[in-house]
Amino acid sequence: MNVLVINCGSSSLKFQLINSDTEAVLAKGLCERIAINGSRLVYQPAGHDKIRKEAPMPTHIEAISMVIEALTDPEIGVIKDMSEIDAVGHRIVHGGEKFDSSTILTDEVYKAIEECSELAPLHNPAHLMGIDACKKIMPDTPMVCVFDTAFHQTMPEEAYLYGLPIEYYKKYKIRRYGFHGTSHSYVSKKAAELLGKPYDQVKTIVCHLGNGASCCAVKYGKSVDTSMGLTPLEGLIMGTRSGDIDPAIVEFIAKKENLDIAGVMEVLNKKSGVLGVSGYTSDFMDLEVDSLAGKPEALLTMKVFAYRVAKYIGAYVAAMNGVDAIAFTAGLGENNRYVRTDICAYLGYLGVELDQEKNAVRGEDIIISTPESKVAVMTIPTNEELAICRETVALLKK
After folding, report:
1. 241 labelled ligand-binding
2. How many other C-beta atoms lie within 10 A of the C-beta of residue 290?
3. Is 334 annotated to bind ligand?
4. Which CATH number fits domain 2-147: 3.40.50.720, 3.30.70.890, 3.40.50.300, 3.30.420.40?
5. Which of 41, 93, 170, 212 is the most exposed place for a label (fewest CB within 10 A)?
6. For the whole model, what pTM was predicted?
7. Phi, psi for residue 203 in degrees, rounded to 5
């Protein structure tokens, strides 16, 4: 079965075509700047270089059309025609409390995603545009929705409730939902495999560290706590997002800077995080290079970031009453050995010891702690697209 995995943003569309039998990626790519001047398709068939094509994409419909054209092109394509796409798997950021697992797309499911848009106004409307485009171009192809929030629906009340009037939860469903669920699920399963233990007998803390970042406590195969909350703004310091702050700061900044709520939220979402602390960049690669060169702003920012991650790890050790494995994933977690070293420097109380030679390895599922380490530390490249493909096939086979 060939599964087209789609991840839509408001002006972008990431895709992979995966053969579910072999789990090989036949082709992947990105449509950039949809509805903006200079839109283009970046397309890479397996075993070949990237191909870039600029063309107007007024909507996601044109973007999907270009993807299909590339996939079926006689010279650069990987399938003969659109009929060889057996299913589409859509990544959906927010499913609220409505979905605790992936589901086949129906009119009722579509409406429920729409209703969750107020909880994820930057993401869910974009996902719906991608669904609309796919339905228009391939109306007879079955589609599955895989929700970032679904994995975290196993959190207990004490983990997901805020210290707010309970009627806000009852009326508006204000609670911690968590995100990156597909990644946390995939990585925690891989961690159990690396340990050689059953998934339901392992306590794992997954650190998904990238421009968006979150930690998750996975106890015996279930998410019991996670750092992101009602929205992806809560938790760790991220590329441009503040993470946890004192709520009174919102009023303080509004008064001092003469901003309304929308203005303050713009600051917290797009001008804060490592960009705000460093004062010059949200790119962790820049920070890595500059911190190695001794730039004070970069050194401070990386220290602040590592400290926040280490605090969450400590909290989740308490939440699970112990931990067997700590897994680092996503762009920063997988590739930056210095960040991993700085975080693990706080974990001596757990008996954590890193093997620095293994810690230097990139892009592999590998245990980077020493045999003497009381807790296994590992890097596991996340593969959300493969996880979405697997979910799609499993549902359709039912």
Report:
1. no
2. 20
3. yes
4. 3.30.420.40
5. 170
6. 0.91
7. -105, 115
